[in-house]
Amino acid sequence: MVFGVFLATGILITATLAESDTEYSVGSGDDDWWITYPDQHPNAGFEVDHPQWIIDALVDQPIIILDHSSGGCKACVYQESYVDAILEDYDKDIAYYNMIAGVGEFEAEELFDIYDPDGGASYVPLTIVLTLVQDPEDEIVVGWHSVEDDKGGEDLVRYYVEDAIMYYEDNRDDWDY
Question: What is the pLDDT of residue 103?
Fold first, then answer.
C-alpha cells in the first residue's frame, strides 16, 4: 500500500507500507479495530456477542458486510458501489455478505443492534469489516470496525479491508474459536 504525506513546504513524500504493517491498530477510538464496544457506544468497553454465523465464517476468511436498504437510499447506492469496487480487487481474500435491512431479514436487523458504531439510531447503510486481531493479553479475538451512511467512502473501507486481510493472515493459525 502506498500513502503520501504533505509537508508544510508542499512537498509530497510517498512511502510504501510493508506487508506486515497495518493502517489501524486495536483500540476503542473512532479509527481503531474494536474488540469491545468503542468509546462512542453506550456500552463502551463491554464485550460484543458476535453471532455464531460470523464466528463460523471467520474460520475461512475475514468478512465485509454491507447492511443496507433496497430502493431509493442514495447513501446505500454509493456505499454499495464503493464495496463493489473493493471486491474487484479483494473478492478472493474476503467473504462478502450483502444484507438487506427492513425486509424482515433477522440477521440484517440483528447486525444493526450489534455493530452500530455509536449505539444510537441505526442508519443505512452500515458497513462492517471483521477479522482476527490480538487483544492486550495476546489472545486472538474477533476485531471489527463499522461505519454508518456512505461516510466511510471507498478509501476508508479499502484500508480496513487491506488491514483485515493482513491481520487475518497473521492470526488465523493461532485462533482458538
Answer: 65
114 within domain boundaries? yes
* Residue 13 falls inside a structural domain: no
In a domain, 103, yes or no: yes
The confidence band for 68, taking pLDDT boundaries of 50, 70 and 90, is: confident
Within 10 Å of residue 94's Cβ, how many Cβ atoms?
A: 21
Stated length of the chain:
177
Three cell numbers, residue 61: 476468511
**Where residue 163 sits, what CATH number does that domain have?**
3.40.30.10
Domain limits for position 40: 25-174
143 domain residue, yes or no: yes
Cell numbers standing for residue 4: 503520501
Q: How far apart, in whole angstroms, are the C-alpha atoms of residue 93 and residue 168? A: 10
pLDDT tens readout for residues 77-104: 888 888 998 899 899 999 999 988 766 6
CA separation (Å) from 14 to 1, 8, 20, 68, 147? 10, 15, 18, 36, 27
Q: What is the pTM of this model?
A: 0.84
pLDDT tier at 118 (50, 70, 90 boundaries)?
Answer: confident
**Measuring CA to CA, which residue among 54, 59, 70 is closest to residue 107?**
54
